[in-house]
């Protein structure tokens, strides 16, 4: 009974988060200059990947309710669908985290190395590598089935023995989570020494939100894929961690709307039917806030110089 309750809650949270993401980024794409903003394109592609997972979970829930497969090959098809979307999400997140990590290692070029264009290129390079890998091992691809009790997808080889995850999927998933946690923890520590308390609070809140999400996905992945074959996985723990990951996905749009200036302006203008706004080039709100702080300092310096010049001019005239 507990497993069914958590499965329904997990599906509800996942559907809510996906609908919120789609509405938010629809507003952004209609009101922001997203064609010149690869950061928004990257986030949108990640949202589409999660939408694929949501569709698969919905169909699997319908099969659970009616107690039979909707199609003869639905288990295999849905498993491949989930596998592809999960891997795509991991690749995109690892690309963003990798660029953030480089920016922390070389802080003098933070904004340049963490630019969305470099992130997009990194994601394309990783995709190319994985595509070549998939083609090279076509003869040993795994079939997939899922556990109806929790809608948890398990990976099986042709002879029926459990193969929880391929080595490349393990590498992508866990390197994504570990690099993300290190990167955003480093950013939080770095931003703790900033003088502006308001910007520092927003930046730390955004970083903690990302760290919470990656930690929940890491624990959930570990509970599903690291379980040794001689031990039976604890389904209750998997269920709770799945709900934690879904909660993160549900609150993610609110965090984007709160801390990303471009998303906020575009969404408000979409609701009020105003003219399009100019989009920034950041993947999240961290670079935006840093850039805003620099612009504020420059504006203050320019005003001070103008006042100094005007005062000196008046003194000469007198």
UniProtKB/TrEMBL annotation:
Database matches in SUPFAM superfamilies? Family A G protein-coupled receptor-like (SSF81321)
Keyword annotations from UniProtKB, A to Z? Membrane, Transmembrane, Transmembrane helix
Transmembrane region(s): 12-30, 42-66, 86-108, 120-136, 172-193, 205-226, 232-251
Pfam families under this entry?
Answer: 7TM_GPCR_Srx
Location(s) in or outside the cell: Membrane
Q: Report the domain of life of the source organism.
A: Eukaryota
Q: List the Gene Ontology MF annotations in alphabetical order.
A: G protein-coupled receptor activity
Q: Any keyword Transmembrane?
A: yes
Just give the chief location class.
Answer: membrane
The residue ranges of the G-protein coupled receptors family 1 profile domain are 20-256
Which is a Gene Ontology cellular component entry for this protein? Answer: membrane
What PANTHER family does the record point to? 7TM GPCR SERPENTINE RECEPTOR CLASS X (SRX) DOMAIN-CONTAINING PROTEIN, SERPENTINE RECEPTOR, CLASS X
Protein name in the entry: G-protein coupled receptors family 1 profile domain-containing protein
Tell me what organism the protein belongs to: Plectus sambesii
Provide the taxonomic classification.
Answer: Eukaryota, Metazoa, Ecdysozoa, Nematoda, Chromadorea
